[in-house]
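Hi R.,

Here's the chain you asked about this morning:
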Amino acid sequence: MKRLMHPLDRYVLAEFTKILVAASLGFPLLAIVIDATDHLQKYLSRNLSWGQIGLSYLYWVPDSMFMVLPAAVLFAAVFSIGAFTRHSEVTAAKASGISFHRLIAPILVASVFTALFTVFLGELVPVTDRKRNDILEERKFSGVSDRFNFAYEAQHGRVYQISALNVDRRAIDHVTIERKGNGPAYPTFLVAAQTANWDTTRHVWMLRHGELHVIPDSLQTMSIHFDSLRDNTFTEGPTDLTATPPSPDEMRYVELRRFISALERSGADTNELKVELALKIAIPVTCIIIAVFGAPLATSSQRGGAAFGIGISLATTMIFLMLIQLTKAVGQGGVVPPALAAWLPNILFAAIGLVLIVRVRT
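And the predicted structure, written out as tokens:
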């Protein structure tokens, strides 16, 4: 590595990395302190021990780091390059025949590795979030008596699309059950029923007034109308169905994509989930784009100082987060394709960053 990197590269990389690590750990710790201040009493009322609460926040670190890493890259780029500019190190490098683009090369390489680490965090977050929710017993304390227009992903590849569920009556209005098969030996089937009632003796749902469609392949189908049908695999009780469904943050990329496909086959609107799926890749790539954007911006003012760096970083971060929320709403509403909506902030900042980096004095 020392042969591949010049002393100046190691110096630039070291200064950038110190700020990056401090920001990557500092922001999540700040978020933990704020969250603990707001929810500590609630957790103690659930008879959770201090060890359990502390472990839950440890599991929360990957989730909090995932969203702040692009901001940490921006802070590291602005403060490190801003310091080089104020101390005339950029000028000295140019006088030695080293262009600004070559000077920031280690920062761009580090941002690529940060993006890869962010992808890893994105796959780790669903695991740690589930463990955190289990410790805090979030699902136990989030039950409600009614739910409307929701989908539930069950075992064995089954998906339930439910219009209305009432826990007190143990009744469902309009339910669709789908399981995707792979051929005649394991066919796809679709069950649509007007109502369903929970059998307290057998602990299964009794479906009423509906149709069963068995689809062995694309050329065959069989339909059966029924007055009543007992589904021995539909064993999730009314309380189980009121549990909070897994959020996109609790599913890995492949799991979320599979969940979206299942919902699409059930006729559900999946634009919101498609935006979240695209963001799982778009946010890590932001680490690279934000470095390209922040590097020339940091050297544009030689008299800025720390206040300038903080102002630029905070303003850029706020604008970027607002753009994400805005484009998510646009994508969820179907105004633009969900994937494009997730990537719009990156496209905008990449265009501005390329203009800045081309115009910077080298």
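Residues 36 and 57 are 9 Å apart (CA to CA).

Let me know if you need anything else.
M.
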